[in-house]
Amino acid sequence: MTARGLFVVGTDTGVGKTLVAAGLLRAFARRRARVVGMKPVAAGAIPHPGIAGDGWASEDALALRAASTITVPAALDNPVLLPEPLSPHLAAERAGRRIELDALIASYHALAAQADVVVVEGAGGLLVPLSDTATGGDLAVALGLPLLLVVGMRLGCLNHALLTAEAIAARGLVLAGWVANRIDPDMLCGDENVATLRRRLPAPLWADVPHRPDGAPAARPLPLDETQIDDFLAR
């Protein structure tokens, strides 16, 4: 059986993609035995002595591993780890590397061969450059997975979310759903903004995540709509 895959994208960087991806993995794990997260490209590394090789890791990849039920080599779940927290194409250039889509796709298929569900977390927003010729949107097209959009609820989010939805549709991709993540506790008319997106986005709301001021939010349960999870797995 081919693994079910889901690509988590965001309206921007810092909107909670890792929080949502880890929460999805935990929700899927209650229904499927073998679930695994993937961070194809991570820009920004931290020292981590538990990692074989040079002892560096991505915080995002570590959070996804903690929520996964199978252990895989870092070369598969985070094939590109770049030292500096920059746009991937710049981080790769400064590290003397080039991000190749074919290698990322091969890693995904290797994971899919071992898992029931693979949750892929993108880098930054959908159209973040990965190289001089490729963007995160090109990777999404190449993988052909349905997308879940994480909307960071703050001033400007309506435009960011609707533009991203248009970019998804223009590439022939499927928007499976979206998550409202209330990253700005002082945002005015937060409920009204969520209601506007519920009317305008062409996909169901999977979760409305309240603001989380603590330092380790990815380990806490998400208020996911369990019906949406079941419907996704049944497709």
Spatial ordering of strands, largest sheet:
2-7-1-8-9-10
- In percent terms, what proportion of residues is strand? 15-25%
First and last CA, distance: 13 Å
Tell me the overall shape: globular
Q: How many domains?
A: 1
> Number of helix segments?
9
Portion in helices: 25-40%
CATH architecture: 3-Layer(aba) Sandwich
| Overall CATH class | Alpha Beta
Q: What characteristics describe this protein?
A:
single chain; 235 residues; alpha/beta; 6-stranded parallel beta sheet; 10 strands; globular
What report would you give on this structure?
- The protein has 235 residues and is α/β, with parallel strands linked by helices.
- The chain has helices at residues 17-29, 59-67, 74-77, 88-94, 101-112, 136-143, 157-170, 190-200, 226-234; strands at 4-10, 35-38, 41-43, 46-47, 56-57, 80-82, 117-125, 147-152, 175-181, 205-209.
- The protein has nine helices and ten strands.
- The strands form three sheets. A six-stranded parallel β-sheet has the order 2-7-1-8-9-10, with helices on both faces.
- The protein has a single domain (4-234), classed as 3-Layer(aba) Sandwich (Rossmann fold).
SSE layout:
Layout: E1 4-10, H1 17-29, E2 35-38, E3 41-43, E4 46-47, E5 56-57, H2 59-67, H3 74-77, E6 80-82, H4 88-94, H5 101-112, E7 117-125, H6 136-143, E8 147-152, H7 157-170, E9 175-181, H8 190-200, E10 205-209, H9 226-234
Parallel strand pairs: 1-7, 1-8, 2-7, 3-6, 8-9, 9-10
Antiparallel strand pairs: 4-5
